[in-house]
Amino acid sequence: MGDEYPKLRLAAVQAAPVYLDREATVEKACRLIREAGAGGAHLVGFPENFIPGHPVWVYFHPVSSARSMDFSAALFKNSVEIPSAATDALCEAAAEARVFVVMGLTEKRPETTGTLYNTQLFIDRRGRIAGKHQKLVPTAGERLVHAGGGGESQRAFATEYGPVSGLCCGENSNPLAVAVLAAQYTRIHVACWPHHFKPTPGYPDMPEMSLLVTRNLAYTCKCYVISACGTVTPEMAEILPATEAERGWLRDPAKTGGSAIIDPRGVVVAGPMGGEKEGILYADVDLEVTVRCRLIHDFGGHYNRPDVFRLLVNQMNPPLLGSLADPGPPADLREPRRLDAGGPRAVPGEQFGALGPGAEGVAPN
């Protein structure tokens, strides 16, 4: 009989948040999770920074302007701690819908007032946090609000469907980040995208570029890719730009959306969805196709040469702040004690397990 590989229904959410309103956007996210579950989805991916919205004002306002600072402060106040009441609600919705969720959000370090991350949160079908991916290098204006992610989050996560991974926006085209996931045999990958790209004459807009990048990633990693793109609401088009010309650009549906689902051959099996609407794309897939494709190109195995090429990933997470223990008698100072390993971490990078509502303790991955 041999090994069997499951057949699944994948889902890509294309939607806009209730911009910079955490509680309202979490409520909308939970509705969409439940809708995906009712639609038979086993795994659903959301756009980049869906909660509470992507910092696209940096494309229209100087970083130190009063308007930009107001937006930045609102983003921080509405960002998500992990765990928190917001993640509890998401976990509850995932458990109720029996769907694995990859949620794009802006993460803030617990009980701090200054550092944010562009994060994908992985929640399993029992409502437990399975892990998180933090965008390693923020792109362009994102660097004004987001810190670089931790090395320990650059990985795929074990699930009942096999390894599941995610990358944010431009890092889906980072060959080294993609190589890590290919070597970890990811089977399902969630590529999340913002509301739109920066208005740049001559540069492809998000629907075109996201499809190019995700088809390439699917073909390279021999995995299914859920490409989840954000959209723009009339309210966002009104409050974000600085000029009427920019408002006209932002109201053009060709500049936003483009969600799709791609198979391991690089073939689009659902979408792309036009930017004029919100919705959920579905695709019924057979994970055995990942095996058949890797028989030809297995970049984590037979189709590579570790004696020639090697990639080292530093997943250590040294703390910024430590403390020296009581040195005791003066003689002990000749052998200083190590920094307390239990001190504050520079970047949250705990091993996640059962962190959902009602979970008993924390289980390692």
What would you say this structure looks like, in words?
By secondary structure, the protein is an alpha/beta fold. The chain has one domain: Carbon-nitrogen hydrolase (Nitrilase/N-carbamoyl-D-aminoacid amidohydrolase, 4-Layer Sandwich). Helix content is 24%, strand content 17%. The chain has 8 helices and 11 strands. It has helices at residues 22-38, 66-77, 85-97, 175-183, 206-221, 234-239, 244-250, 288-294, and strands at 7-14, 43-45, 100-108, 116-123, 129-134, 164-168, 188-192, 224-228, 260-262, 268-270, 279-286. Helix 1 (22-38) links the parallel strand 1 and strand 2 (43-45). Helix 1 packs parallel to helix 3. It is globular, with a radius of gyration of 21 Å.
List keywords for this structure.
5-stranded mixed β-sheet; 6-stranded mixed β-sheet; disordered C terminus; globular; 365 residues; alpha/beta; Nitrilase/N-carbamoyl-D-aminoacid amidohydrolase
User: Major sheet: order of its strands?
Assistant: 5-4-3-2-1-11
CATH architecture: 4-Layer Sandwich
Give the number of helices: 8
CATH superfamily (homologous) name: Carbon-nitrogen hydrolase
CATH topology name: Nitrilase/N-carbamoyl-D-aminoacid amidohydrolase
Oligomer: single chain
